[in-house]
Every structure is written in C-alpha cells, then in structure tokens.
Amino acid sequence: MKQLHKQPTSSRKDEESPFSHTSSTYSPKSLKPSRSLPRSLNYILKEQRLLFILVGILIGSTFFIIQPSLSILSPTDPRPPHISAANHHQSLDTFPHHTSPDTHNFHNHFGINNYNRYASGVGRVPVGIGSKRKRIVVTGGAGFVGSHLVDKLIARGDDVIVIDNFFTGRKENVMHLFGNSRFELIRHDVVEPILLEVDQIYHLACPASPVHYKYNPVKTIKTNVMGTLNMLGLAKRIGARFLLTSTSEVYGDPLEHPQKETYWGHVNPIGVRSCYDEGKRTAETLTMDYHRGAGVEVRIARIFNTYGPRMCLDDGRVVSNFVSQAIRKQPMTVYGDGKQTRSFQYVSDLVDGLVALMEGEHVGPFNLGNPGEFSMIELAEVVKETIDPSATIEFRPNTADDPHKRKPDISKAKELLNWEPKISLREGLPLMVNDFRNRILNEDEGKEDK
Q: What positions does the domain NAD(P)-binding occupy (predicted)?
C-alpha cells in the first residue's frame, strides 16, 4: 500500500524535471532562436519569408504604377454619366411649353434649370465632392404625389425604382423618365413581398381619394397593413430608411383646431371611410413598432389636402372636382352647406417637405400641409375667378363622416425640418388648371375620334 502511494509522487517528479534520465534527448531550450540575431530578424530569415515579402511589395508597386496610366487612356464623356442628350430633351417635353412667370417658377422649383446645367456639362461637380448617389424606392411612384417626388429625386441625381400596381397611378405620369438610365419601373402590388437593395424607401402606395378607397375597402386596408408590413420588413432586412406617408384623416372629425401631432384624433372605426382612416392609423402603429422593436430608421408624414398637375380628373377630391367641372362647363358640386373647411397645399411644397423629413434626423409624425384655411364656398369662388366667372354651384347632401374642419399646425415642421409651404392657392391653382385643361381637351378629342 505504501508503494502504491509513493508511485505517483515519483512520476510527478519525473514529469516536472526536463532533464529526466528516462526521457529522450529533447530539450525545450533547443527551440529557442540563436542569441546571435534578434528574434524578429531570425523569424524573417527562416523558411524564405523575406523572399515572399519582397515579391508582395513588387506586386503592389506594379499595381499602383499601372493603374493611373490606364485611367488616362480611358475615354471621357464631357456630360455627366447617365444623362444623354435624348433623355435631356425628352424630360423637357413633359412640361407645358408656355412662358408664364408661374411656369418659370414651377420649373425652377423642381430643379429643371439645374438639370439643364448638368445635362450640358456646365457646373459639373467633381467625383468625391458631391453627395453620394442614393438608390431609392418609391411605392406608388406613378401616382399624383409619387411622380412629382420621383422627378425631384431623379433631378438631384439619385437612382429611383418605382413600384406601382396602377390602380390609381398612371404610366403617363412617369413616361418622360422611361429613357433615363437612373429610373426603373416595376409593376407590383405591395401587398405581396418584394426583394430589393436600396438606401431609402418612400412608402406612398395606397388609394387616397374617397372614390378610390371606397371602391374596394378590404383591399384598401390590406394595402395599408400588409403593404406597410412588407415594406417595413424590407427596410429591416437591408437597413434602409423608411418614410410612411400617412394622412390628416388619422385625426378623423377633429375636436381640436388646428390639429397638432399630439392630437390622437376622433375617428369612427366602423364608418365607410374607416378602411382608409384606420388603415393609416394602423400603418403608423406598425412603423413605430418596427422602429422601437427592430431599430428600423423611420419617418412619418401626415399629409393634408394637396393639389397640382397629374391629379386624377375625377377622383372625388374637392379641388380636382371643382376644376374639372368648371372646365367642362358643369356646376361645381358642393356637399352639405359648404361651410366645412380644408387647407390646400401645392404638390411641390409637399415634395419638399417629404424630402426634408427623409433627410432629417427626426422620426415625427409631422404635419405637412398649408395652414391657409378655406371653406368649400370660398374654394369655389377662387376656382371661378381662375377658370370661369360664370361657373355655377350646385349643393348636394353631405357624405358620411365628412370632417367639418381641417387645418394643420405646422409649428413642429417649421422648427425641426425648417420647412413651410411657399405657394398659395391663387398661385398654384393656375398651374393645375393648365394641366387639367390640356388633358380634358385630349380626352374630348379622343371621344370624337371614336
């Protein structure tokens, strides 16, 4: 028993002693480098490491010597990339060819003159100095607001992908961009998922006028919920910034006037407008949940009544209704007593607000609208002054859940986005009238040809 107890002790001594008589001639000291050379130099000289280092330096030097000479030999184009002369003229043809001051301002506002400068090679920004070109998707980009937003993004030099199922959007709104290599159009319904690689997502897809969203209310709320979920999911996967275009309808028939972003609204959840009102409220909820729960960068805009060129001629919204009816020599239809009020912003002001919100650092929600308030009777009088002083007004029973008052408080947008509308109703309305008059004339000529 004593022998067994002592045996491990002797074994440990043998293991601890590097000079045990029973072990081989191996000694750890034999692996140490020679003291005659520094350790690092000895490492480099072994196994031809020095040769590999010299070869690597030679290859790297050769690359940096040859590369600049290749760039000198490559042909250069005096015009910026992706802007051909054909595209330049094609884009200009989409705007009305009249020389009124309003039109001149309109072209300046959308950056058309700046676009001309760059298309002709004047004022070209050197590579590395200008802002990074972004890849942006705009859902509903063939619609009224979406197409104007796409024009602004293309004009500033971004690559834009438009997604639209053409329920309310029209190819004519973006046809002038078909030859532009920085523009892409995909016919797709956002209710179905889509995979893209982009930096920013402007989510506008949803019918916005009562005529359209009441046509298929179930489809409308699916677009608001499933479409928003799909685009938020895309933003989460690819790390894109997401902007939701919500609506002033989230305030319902407001008990607060004017409406601030802190107001929670007064909405009928089971009314005929609920598919749109509650759909947008749910979309806002989803957007904030993705922001808080998944860290998605989001922005929320609450859009108030907007008008301008490319609106649908008969979409049921009051400005387009009045303008179309006055041009066609029909009575302007006023629902109820005409004392309900709305605030009307020109489309270019809204587009500026959306871009400022997307490029800013604040989540929102932000009211984007013109605080100038008009009753329906007052609006009808402005339309008469602009189009036809002899136009008449016809009163009809009011529609269900029609808000009595609507006016945005835009203090938050002024302070945090440095944004406010610049174009008054009397300045913007003639630009819309010119567009409507041309389209109605073409429509009538088409009917005569048939």
A: 138-430
Window from 90-104, 322-336, 356-370 with minimum mean pLDDT = 90-104
pLDDT of residue 441: 86
| Nearest alpha-carbon partner for 366 in 355, 374, 375, 376 | 355
204, 146 contact by CB (below 8 A): yes
- For 298-365, the DSSP string reads EEEEEE--EE-TT--TTSS-HHHHHHHHHHTT-PEEEETTS--EEE-EEHHHHHHHHHHHHHSS----
Q: Is the pLDDT of residue 434 over 70?
A: yes
* CA angle in degrees (0–180, nearest 5) for 62-67-69: 110
Q: What is the pTM of this model?
A: 0.69
Measure the CA–CA gap between 259 and 342, rounded to whole angstroms.
Answer: 12
* pLDDT tens digits, one per residue of 11-55: 444 444 444 444 445 444 444 444 556 666 666 666 677 777 888
Both tokens of residue 367?
A: 């009211």
Work out whether strand 373-375 and strand 341-343 pair parallel, antiparallel, or are unpaired.
antiparallel
Distance, CA of 366 to CA of 212 (rounded, Å): 25
pLDDT at 131: 61
Non-local (6+) Cβ contacts of 332 within 8 A are 321, 322, 325, 326, 380, 383, 384, 391, 392, 393, 394
pLDDT value for 354 = 97
User: Cα(299)–Cα(94) distance, rounded to whole angstroms?
Assistant: 31
Which of 81-90, 102-111, 376-385 has the highest average model confidence (pLDDT)?
376-385
* Residue-range domain boundaries for the chain: 85-118+131-307+345-372+406-424
Q: β-strand 345-346 against 306-307: which pairing, if any?
A: parallel
DSSP label at residue 47 = G
- Please tell me the distance from the alpha carbon of residue 185 to that of residue 106, in angstroms, as a whole number: 25
Contact 193, 139 (CB under 8 A): no
Share of the chain above pLDDT 70, in %: 73
CATH dotted code for 85-118+131-307+345-372+406-424: 3.40.50.720
